[in-house]
Amino acid sequence: MRTSFILNKPSIMFNLFAKPVRLLTSVTALSLFIITPALAAVISFDNISDANAIVFGDFVGKYNDSQGSLIVGGNATLTGYTVGTLNQADKRALTVSGNLDLVGGDVNGLAYVGGTASVSNTNALRAAPEMGIASQAHFISLSESLSVANNANANAKWSQLTLQSAAFQDTLIAHISPSQFSDFTSVFTAPEQLGSRIVLNISGNDITMGAKDWLLKTTSWLQHDASNVLFNFYEATSLTINTSLYGSVLAPNADVFGTGGMINGQFIANSFTTGINGGTQLNYAPFNADDTPPLDIKQVSEPHAAALLLLGLGALLIGRFKRSNV
User: Fold this and answer.
1) Which residues are CB-neighbours of 33 under 8 A, at least 6 positions away?
2) Which of 83, 213, 226, 279 is deepest in the core (most CB within 10 A)?
3) In what helix (H) or strand (E) does residue 141 lie, and over which residues does it extend?
């Protein structure tokens, strides 16, 4: 038996407006979806894309080289050390705010020295105009902000550390504790993360990067490009590198001792001292940093305009629906 319902006037009015209200709700929700920015890690290197290394304090280099340019906020002592082996001869290779003591080696490019320059057993320096030093406070802030932006877990099993996230990440960020260092020899991600940026937040005040395979790969054994990898030592005040790192190093508070191996990326630290027989080589592989700061939602004009268009469309549809029911 079919049941009949008698619709009173308020019910009729509800039905008249139910569809347009639902439509307006859907349009509004879509508008909010469009104007809501995606949350993504913004990594600004303060426009130092052409620098192989930035050291805010002193730089001591012996019997080794950097492929790119060096920026030193304190004094630079270089013995048998060549700066900018891949640098163009007419480009800036060395900036030293303090004093420079250069014995042997070479500076392949232009140089600026804010203090006194002592040069022997090598070519004379060719002067470059003064250039400001990058802000240490900027990189400290960047390091700290990345340290709390983890969106993946680091799980050690069978000598492999696998970085796992519930969803694909344009910038995959994971934390590694000092206690995990003994649990793995190599680092992997899911295959779909190939081409993404990878940030490893490594905690601890006094850290030694020893003999491990720091060339990150996917579980299908494809290699991550060093320009997409960043090692963030956000707590370190002392860092020893005696291995090869395929990625950039962000250690803005650390005094770094490069006793061996190489860094295939950019290098940012409080100070740097190589080993007595050469130590760590600096190879130029600039990190894939963002060129601009994050946009404020008020500055995003195109999505805002699209939202207004959708809201206007919703109002027109409601008006048309009302007219059709008169």
Assistant:
1) none
2) 83
3) helix 136-147
Which residue in this structure is represented by tokens 């082996």? 85
* Region of poorest pLDDT, from 21-30, 33-42, 261-270: 21-30
Contacts of residue 264, defined as CB under 8 A and 6 or more positions apart, other chains included, come to: 226, 244, 245, 246, 247, 283, 285
The two three-digit tokens of residue 32, written as one number: 């909010």
Q: Can you tell me the distance from the alpha carbon of 278 to that of 285, in angstroms, rounded to the nearest whole number?
A: 20
Phi-psi region at 151: left, alpha or beta (left = phi > 0; alpha = psi -120 to 50): alpha
- Token output for 300: 């995003």
Alpha carbons 147 and 209: distance in angstroms, whole number? 18
CA of residue 204 relative to chain centroid, distance: 20
111-155 confidence digits (pLDDT tens): 999 999 999 999 999 999 888 778 999 999 999 999 999 999 999
The structural domains of the chain, with segments of one domain joined by +, span 51-283, 300-326
